[in-house]
Design goal:
Elements (H helix, E strand, L loop, with lengths): L5 H14 L4 E5 L8 E6 L4 E10 L4 E11 H14 L4 E6 L14
Parallel strand pairs: 2-5
Antiparallel strand pairs: 1-5, 2-3, 3-4
Length: 109
Amino acid sequence: MIRLTSRFWVDAYLARLRVFDIPAFVVAHGDDTAGAVLVKSSTLDGWAKLYQRSYDLLEDTRRWDVFVEGAEADVDASIAKQRKFDSDVWVIEVEDRAGRTLLGEQGLT
């Protein structure tokens, strides 16, 4: 299986979000080739979820799992903690009152 670079995936993800008029921002620019990607979903009411991509050994697939959710300040603290030990991580912030991230859509999983 061919792996996409992190930069290519992030650019494609941001383009897909723009098609649906969902605002998103690169909060932390990680390693272009192999940096992990975290997606923060903010519903603009003080609450947020942080998604990370994980590998399911039983199903031999990759999927997006909620890493942490709750008050936005707590999610931001978790991101800061992650960035302290992994400077190559990308952080994308998606702002949508309905909580749409499109992470389950074809081509993004």
